[in-house]
Amino acid sequence: MAPRPPRPPRPPRVPWAAPLYVGAVQLGAYATARLPSRRRTELLRAHSTNVANLRAGRWGTLLTSAGFVEEPLPVPYGAALLAVLGTAERHWGVRGAAGVFAAGHLGASLLVYAGLRARSHLRGPGDPTPHAIDVGASYGFYATLGALAASVPHRGIRAAATAGLLALGTRPVLRRGRTFTDAGHLTALALGVATGAGIRAGRHGWKGAKKRYPTAAR
Questions:
Q1: Any signal peptide, and if so, which residues (predicted)?
Q2: Which of 30-34, 79-83, 205-209 is predicted least confidently?
Q3: Count of beta carbons in the 10 Å neighbourhood of residue 134
Q4: Per the confidence metrics, is the pTM higher than 0.85?
Q5: Which of 36, 43, 48 is nearest to 128 (CA)?
């Protein structure tokens, strides 16, 4: 059987979901900022992944919280978010990038919830944390950034990038004025690094199988 001609290289993906998402979040933030202060607070709290909502079974906030932010995104942060999500979409496609984002956002939100719920039992009913506003794209952003760092092909650059990001994520957790969001960022970053390592290992395994069994891999 004659070997098949090599497939032409795929054209590079042009990210479209990342700009759409970041733009929607920013437009929503400007619209929310125009609401009266009390109504705005109620809206953000209703979509927060805080202890009160999740303990009451409002699990939909795990999804909707990623679509709201407390304030319009600053230009540097919005540009960084767009660059990271766009790079992930270009490398892994819409589904892959969305999966990494969702794994970090959902995983970090649930782990932070578990920690805060345990703390609320110790502190009693006077603790305001269970009703705190907890919305935004930062958990997914940190997870995607960690996954990109962990999937860099060059071993030395990959190790330096992941170690540097984890060190930067650990520093706020060690300070005296740390918040549960700082812990969530570090958790999301660690989840992203693990996800990126899994993606890289899976690709290496696929390439190895393709070299060993070229006809079966087609």
A1: none
A2: 205-209
A3: 26
A4: yes
A5: 48
Instruction: Quote the DSSP letter at residue 20.
Output: H
The two three-digit tokens of residue 123, written as one number:
């502190």
Helix and strand numbers, DSSP H then E, in the chain: 9, 0
Calculate the alpha carbon distances from 59 to 17, 78, 105, 110, 185 in Å. Answer: 24, 27, 13, 10, 20
- Span 50-71, pLDDT tens digits: 999 999 999 999 999 999 999 9
3-state secondary structure of 213: coil
pLDDT digits (tens, 9 = 90+) for 124-142: 666 778 889 999 999 999 9
pLDDT of residue 12: 65
